Protein: glutaryl-CoA dehydrogenase (ETF)
Amino acid sequence: MPALNPTDLFDIRSQLSEEERAVQDTVARFTDERVLPIIGDCFDEGRFPKELIPEIASLGLLGSSLPEEYGCAGLNGVSYGLICQELERGDSGIRSFVSVQSSLCMYPIYAYGSEEQRREWLPRMAAGEVIGCFGLTEPHGGSDPANMKTYAKKDGGDWVINGAKMWITNGNVAQIAIVWAQTEEGIQSFIVPTDTPGFTAQVIKHKMSLRASVTSGLFFDNVRIPDSNRLPNVKGLKGPLGCLTQARYGITWGPIGAAIACLTEANNYAKDRVLFNRPIAATQAVQLKLADMARRITLAQLLSLQLGRLKDAGTMQPAQVSLAKWNNCRMAIDIAREARDILGGAGITTEYSPIRHALNLESVITYEGTETVHQLVIGREVTGINAF
Structure:
């Protein structure tokens, strides 16, 4: 019998279509050749590699699941998941950039916008000519988006927006912001060009996580936009929550890539590191850790693949996404920490990836629903009682 792949013990790849495998191989090659050689330095410098945006766009990774008529790739949900997995094998910041552009900015324009808005924005966003950010979270809000203070007031044929958003990925590289605001008719969404008078984006500094990603605060001081910039086909929290379901789906796949990177590096290091006249990979203590990493990655792979099949069948439910995000983020952060431990002192440097992935995953396990929030979502499904 052939040897099993340490990072694919159940041969998940055999369950993929030819197109899905081609997508995975293409993005894996991009990650190996273009991301990994520079990403450690980017993390050290706190710099998002904007020079990669044209190539990311040329590969069809922006809005990859949206229809081809809008300049997008028209791929299925599993392919989008594999894109997220391979990008996050490089770095969570790269996957976050693509996730925000695709699921949080392009998706709401497609799902909630007018046909004119789709035609105006989606082809340019798919080409990487226009970058978006998603303005939902507020400084005081966190896990309670209904407690939104940003307000949009109708003034003739315009809307005037006042308020602030916090922890916004892509904020200082974006040309448009998808902004959610309270109105007299409930929560609504607006496309706000970032050069609009009164709009300010401010980079959040001193981060120890997602350092190769741009994170910003957004501030709105009497920002005036025309009614034609309002997304007309949604009102209420179901709008932003629908976007978050799309993004969280991709996040269930992304941490698998980070975990695979950590297992691979820890495994290779353990085979090369000789102590007491034998490689540490020959000790039971290290083998137990590596075996447990492989087990948990396998379970996460099966979970996300089934979730992707449900998504493509149109039967995926938000609670199922919550279960997968909870499980897979917890899996990945635990593996990153164990891999760092196997590397010993070497593991605290960004010459190796586990400490970088561990720090990034502190954000991934928190954003778009904290671990506790997703646990409570499942608790509600199990008991029928809302404990929020």
